[in-house]
Amino acid sequence: MSETLLIRSRRMVLPGGVTEAAVFVRDGRIEEVGDYDLQREADRTVDLGDLPLLPGLVDSHVHVNEPGRTEWEGFASATRAALAGGVTTICDMPLNSSPATTTVDALRAKVAAADGQCAVDVAFWGGAVPGNAESIGPMLDAGVVGFKCFLIDSGLPEFPPLSRAELRAAMKALAASGAPMIVHAEDPAEVRPPAGSSYGEFVASRPPVAERRAIETVISAAAFSGARAHIVHLAAGECAALISSAKAAGIDLSAETCPHYLFFAAEEVQPGHTEFKCCPPVRYAVNREALWRALGDGAIDGVVSDHSPCTPALKGLPDGDFRTAWGGISSLQLGLSVIWTVARRRGFTLADVARWMAAFPASLAGLPTKGRIAVGCDADLVAFDPDVSWDVRGAELLHRHPVTPYEGRTLTGRVSRVWLGGVEVTPADPPRGRLLARGGEPLEH
Fold first, then answer.
1. Domain count, the chain
2. Fewest CB atoms within 10 Å of the CB: 164, 213, 229, 347?
3. Whole-angstrom Cα distance, residue 181 to residue 149?
4. Which NCBIfam families does the protein's record reference (predicted)?
């Protein structure tokens, strides 16, 4: 028998904006979106009243690290944290796990590790590294949603960067598929070792020009190949004009930034607090304002976590050294609240947040039934209280380790209820997430 669900909200976040509406769900998919007083016979009816209903978020930039570095993070802990934060689909990055996802066999190993553990739906990026251009087609056939590469040392010898020529070759191999090449864009020629252990010296060692030069390289490769290109974790606000100009010229280019770049500023990072370290770095307040302007005018398309945890020992806490600490920020569970806390003060709406954090990442990853409350889409839904305030306590988060730069911060807005495929779920429930291929179909494994 078909399972049916009817949910009403006076503040439903639809693609066209926030409005009174109801959704009718059958067998995990949205069958109808109608007026608030829509009448359908359903197995379950939920009336949220004034509590907003958002599409489940899609986080297309998550480092789960399993297999091989499960002590950093794993599918069970990462997806439970995602669910608690209103993220109903994640896309796992190809590095930090061992083996790195640069071959079909490595993808199979990762899928085997994830199988049966995931509290939310999971898709997978492949990795583009020197010498594996011939693996791009087979990996696409095996179900990856696209490819990630670095133009600078990734910090892991098994995931080396591409040269300019290798980037062009890899993107040429990818072009016909329509799948994106997503790029960590920093130019190694513009990066130098930090002069000392302070945060200011670390920021100075990776200046905005490093991002600019690398993005120019990506734009050139996209123009040459005709492939879709995407800039991950944009930190330098001054690059927004370059990205906008490339888009206007017809280059198939998009860009994301991350909650930490939009929330923090370098001025507030205290000595030894390496929980703030990431690459590119959190820059100064004036740069943060430029990122918000770029997000508002569409130069930046989306906001995703770049959740990149490690063990506390690798951060060197409590008195970390910014020269040697592992770079990466843990925020998968917090992104929606972090962004809403700041966005609401700047005049943005929940519809803006849903576009940045659900619709765009779903489109990037080629998951057409994700990220929107619309007929035919998966019934991944989040009831969100936009007015409640709460204090972050790392020990209460569901990531594997409690290290987070948001420790003690007061955020506004918190996830109240979550439905995955039309079924209400909590992090304590048995995992029911699916493994997905590009296109949104189940991944064969």
1. 1
2. 347
3. 7
4. allantoinase
Q: Do residues 284 and 265 lie in contact, with contact meaning Cβ atoms separated by under 8 Å?
A: yes
pTM: 0.97
pLDDT at 318: 85
pLDDT for res 229 = 98
Amino acid letter, 253? L
Task: Provide φ and ψ at 256, rounded to 5°.
Answer: -125, 160
Supply the pLDDT for residue 2: 73
Token digits of residue 69:
């570095």
What sign has the CA pseudo-torsion 390, 393, 395, 397?
Answer: positive
311 and 384 in contact (C-beta within 8 Å)? no
Give dist(CA 73, CA 111) in Å, integer.
15
Strand partners, 329: 307
- CATH number of the domain that 194 lies in? 3.20.20.140
CA gap 262, 411 in Å, rounded:
14
Per-residue pLDDT at 253: 98
Q: Is residue 327 included in any domain, yes or no?
A: yes
What is residue 347's three-state secondary structure? coil
Residue-level pLDDT at 207: 98
Angstrom distance (rounded) from CA 89 to CA 420: 9
Question: Is 42 part of any domain?
Answer: no
Place of tokens 């009448």: 39
**303 contacts 262 by C-beta, under 8 angstroms:** yes
Q: Are 339 and 357 in contact (CB under 8 A)?
A: yes
Contacts of 370 by beta carbon, 8 Å cutoff, 6+ apart: 55, 56, 58, 88, 89, 121, 358, 362, 377, 378, 380, 440
Give the DSSP H/E element, type plus range, for residue 423: strand 423-425
E strand segments, 366-405? 381-391
Structural domain including 345 reads 56-368+389-410
Q: What is the dihedral of CA 89, 92, 93, 96, to 10 degrees?
A: 140
Res 1: pLDDT: 45
Separation CA 238–CA 209 (nearest Å): 9
Residue 35 lies in a domain: no
Give CA–CA dist 297/302, Å, rounded: 12
Predicted local confidence at residue 348, as pLDDT: 98
Low-confidence ranges of the chain (pLDDT < 50): 1
Determine how many CB atoms are found less than 10 A away from the CB of residue 190. 17
